[in-house]
Design a protein that fits this description.
The strands form 2 sheets. The chain has a 6-stranded parallel β-sheet, with helices on both faces. It is an alpha/beta fold. The protein is elongated, with a radius of gyration of 25 Å. Strand 3, helix 9 and strand 4 form a beta-alpha-beta unit. The chain has 14 helices and 12 strands. About 5% of the residues have low confidence.
């Protein structure tokens, strides 16, 4: 036995040139763990009959030596569990549609079948039943914040990935836009254009949306501008007509005179523009408006809407990659991936 091999056997998690100088093999892991190659193979493939403690040790060594687990996932099935919020969005806007497009595009490349399953009233039993099938490799939860659902998902034996939401306790991997920096980016732009009285129009309730409020507040505070509660205008749903009504009421109050409105979504921005037109105010000459999402209709508004582009389709693609990592056992640590967003400048913002 060489000196390096002896070190590897005595301390299996210590990475040496035995495994990093070339592609790691099952033999390398077997030597480090002091077991047979067949045992390593069974431990990594999830077969029964392997002691749980030994399985964890084998998986840890595999990760330490960067062993790429051969994984044939073609023909397997992925469940996409959609919340009520996701389905409502699907029928009104394109956000959910683009996420699903991203997942389906990557799934086609991998030869994976997609099954969509709605979640109603915090009931995850249909998902649990589907997960019992040997053909189901994992589940993607789309726009799910319900703590009951998250608690249940954290107990699943197969990989779970959240899209457009995250787990506050970091038990589950997730991918979503960096909502906080996205809102700050938009607010910073308004401030560079000379605006100081900037309102934030939002529909509260989801943690991801609260992060957008925080981003607006971050920017305002960093420029020593007032960002009190009076500047946050809330509606109960993402409908343009509710946004229109809320802005009309806010702007008719003489104490609320804003030069710009940052909206938590493009749909709210549409309502804001409608309200300003009804009040006889011109966009952007009198009041500037910015949306978030960059939905297709944004560029066809009058004026074309300046908005924040969210990498929605990319979120779906990355979600499937995270799920694949969980299926292969390449990482056992949940990850939260936040994607950068970009400002799309059109005609709804003017300098003052």
């Amino acid at each position: 036995m060489t000196k390096k091999e002896k070190v590897a056997k005595e301390n299996p998690l210590e990475v040496t040139d035995v495994t990093v100088s070339r592609r790691a093999r099952l033999q390398d892991i077997a030597k480090r763990c002091g077991v047979s190659i067949s045992t390593v193979s069974r431990a990594l493939s999830g077969e029964k009959g392997v002691n749980p403690e030994l399985r964890r040790k084998v998986q840890e060594v595999a990760r330490a030596v960067r062993y790429a687990v051969p994984l044939e996932i073609g023909g397997s099935r992925i469940i996409i569990a959609t919340s009520r919020a996701a389905m409502i969005d699907y029928s009104r806007n394109q956000f959910t549609w683009y996420v699903l497009q991203g997942v389906q595009e990557r799934a086609r490349m991998m030869g994976i079948e997609i099954t969509t399953q709605p979640i109603t009233d915090s009931d995850v039993s249909p998902i649990t039943d589907l997960m019992q099938s040997s053909s189901v490799a994992g589940v993607i939860f789309l726009t799910v914040d319900d703590p009951v659902v998250l608690d249940a998902a954290a107990q699943f034996s197969k990989p779970v990935v959240l899209v457009n939401s995250d787990d506050p306790l970091m038990r589950l991997s997730s991918v979503l836009p960096c909502n906080r920096s996205a809102a700050r980016l938009a607010t910073d732009y308004l401030i560079t254009m000379g605006h100081k009285q900037i309102a934030f129009l939002t529909c509260p309730g989801r943690r991801t949306i609260e992060q957008r409020v925080e981003g607006w507040r971050d920017s305002m505070l960093s420029h020593q501008l007032a960002c009190d509660a009076k500047k946050v205008i809330a509606v109960s749903d993402w409908l343009p007509e509710l946004a229109e009504r809320a802005i009309c009421e806010a702007m008719q109050n003489k104490r609320n005179r804003f030069s710009a409105i940052l909206c938590a979504s493009d749909s709210l921005a549409i309502g804001a523009i409608q309200a300003l037109n009804k009040l006889g105010l011109k966009v952007p000459d009198d009041v500037s408006v910015i949306g978030m999402n960059d939905l297709p209709q944004a560029e066809f508004l009058d004026p074309p809407l300046t908005t924040v582009h969210l990498p929605v389709q990319e979120m779906g693609m990355i979600a499937l990659e995270l799920l694949q990592d969980g299926m292969s056992g390449t990482t056992g640590i949940p990850r939260r991936i936040e994607l950068a967003c970009s400002l799309v400048v059109r005609k709804s913002v003017a300098g003052i």
